[in-house]
Amino acid sequence: MSGIEIITTTLFALYLEALVNIFLDFKYDLYGYFSKGVDWRGLLYGFGIFGQVSIVYLNYFPYNKKLMSKVIYIVGWSVFAYIYELLFLWSKTYYYNGWKCWYSLILYPILYLILRSFHKYVLFLLKKYQQS
After folding, report:
1. What percent of the chain has pLDDT over 90?
2. H-type alpha helices, 60-100
3. CA 112, CA 77: separation in Å to the nearest integer?
4. Are 14 and 46 in contact (CB under 8 A)?
5. What is the C-alpha to C-alpha distance for residues 53 and 109, in angstroms, rounded to an integer?
């Protein structure tokens, strides 16, 4: 990935994470980091994880493979994220307050598809502006 792809997708991943948390954590109080409400430790956790995960996820994405390879890749990353979430729950850096485990299993593939779609759009824009 080029530098511009990394910075744009990282910022998008952080924005997407913040947007999801505004509704699911702050508005509906379904889960959270450390303690209820805004917590600087939780903010640092989010910034420390989501940007880096998006870079690795997109950098190894099987762009030129068949659909089944892409589906397996997204499912694999979703399982990885779910296990990571369980470790956060176990370490008490993350808590559920009405959230159910299976919600995450549904949400992760959607989030990974959104991230991949955004990266595809960035690539489209880069190609478009390089031609002009």
Report:
1. 60
2. 67-91
3. 8
4. yes
5. 14
Angle at 106 between CA 100 and CA 110, to 5 degrees: 135
Average pLDDT on 68-80 reads 97
Q: pLDDT, tens digit, for every residue of 49-66?
A: 888 899 999 999 999 999
Angle, helices 40-59/101-131, rounded to nearest 10 degrees:
60
Q: Say whether pTM exceeds 0.70.
A: yes
- Per-residue burial over 65-96, b = 16 or more CB atoms within 10 Å of its CB, e = otherwise: eeeeeeeebbeebbeebbeebeebeeeeebee
Q: In this predicted structure, what is the pLDDT of residue 118?
A: 96
Helices (H) and strands (E) in the chain, counts: 4, 2
Are the CB atoms for 5 and 123 separated by under 8 Å?
A: yes
93's tokens: 């850096």
The DSSP letter of residue 26 is I
The residue ranking higher by pLDDT, 45 or 66, is 66
Written as six digits, the tokens of 131 are: 């031609």
Nearest to 78 by CA among 102, 108, 33, 55: 108
